[in-house]
Amino acid sequence: MPENGSAPAAGTNQRITTLGIALLVTLTLIWGCSWPMMKICVGAISPWTFRTLTTLFPGTAVLIALMALGVNIRIPPRRLPWLALLSFVNVTSWMLLSAFALTLLPAGRSSIIAYTMPIWSVVLGAIFLHERISRRRVIGLALGLSGLAVLVGQDLGHLGVSPLGTGFMVLGAIFWAAGIVLMKLRPWNMPVWSFSGWQLTLGGLPIALGAIVLEDGSFHDFGWQEYGALAYVLLIAVICGNYLWFKIVSLMPAGIASIGTMAIPVVGVVSSLLLLGETVSWREIMALTLVVGALVSVLSPERAGR
């Protein structure tokens, strides 16, 4: 497998590339549009069963496909403990904590809390990866978080209603950021598809156990719209999206890769408006403007000599 087909490796000398930006834009559209799709799905599938379907099923499907193509998916024994830890942090913890949080918080837009992830990523990246917190990165963080705050400003007053739910989501965001740092601390030297498939599979096993114990796996009111939404989430958002995310983390510094995710909830709101028939308000327009400014701040090339 060529070097550019490998999973994230350790190192901090990465620069922003055209390929990295293109992949980030693509991922933003894919994961942003997944929000209304997931909303459709959770209305017809019990939550833990849905989480199991979006981790264990696509993970094993990717690994089986790779084996059919003759790709060696064997995990070196000395890397298995780290891969298991990364899967727990990056998949299991995020999925479970966000699921618990969404059962306690009163608004769908509580997902704003999840995108405090770039703050934790920048901090953890500076501590463990020695990534520089530049002035432009600080400006980008400020603009992006301002845009997200505007987007859900009317819901911020509800955060105190369920401090436990808020704590779950913040902790989930910290685990997500920690997963990015873990991916860059070790030279995995695995093909990205294999890397993604194993993480989804290993991380999905505890979730599947919870679904067996806590839920009956029932499906109700399942029609063509629900099947289409589930197919999008499984094939596009999870399989392709995770591949793109791991590839982006391998190409870009952790802080910039995570800041780039700030556009995802904006795309999610806009796509929900278009697909679910809601109306656009000044909040969405202002949030989009601020987030675009954030991305320009952190992703535009540095001037020569600086």
Radius of gyration from CA coordinates: 19 Å
Strand content: under 5%
Major beta-sheet overview: none
Average pLDDT reading:
78
* Helix-strand category: mainly alpha
The total of helices stands at: 12
Low-confidence stretches: 1-5, 8-13
Write down the overall geometry.
globular
Distance between the termini: 36 Å
> Which range best describes the helical content: under 10%, 10-25%, 25-40%, 40-55%, 55-70% or over 70%?
55-70%
The number of domains: 1
In short:
The chain has 306 residues and is mainly α. It has helices at 18-42, 47-53, 56-68, 80-104, 117-128, 135-151, 163-185, 192-214, 224-251, 254-259, 263-276, 282-299.
Labels describing this entry:
306 residues, mainly alpha, globular, disordered N terminus
Task: Please tell me about this protein's structure.
By secondary structure, this protein is mainly alpha-helical. It has one domain (about 20-300). The chain is globular, with a radius of gyration of 19 Å. It starts with 17 loop residues before the first helix and ends in a 7-residue tail after the last helix. The protein has helices at about 20-40, 45-55, 55-70, 80-105, 115-130, 135-150, 165-185, 190-215, 225-250, 255-260, 265-275, 280-300. Helix content is about 70%, strand content about 0%. Helix 1 crosses helix 11 (about 265-275) and helix 3 packs antiparallel against helix 8 (about 190-215). The protein is built from 12 helices and no strands.
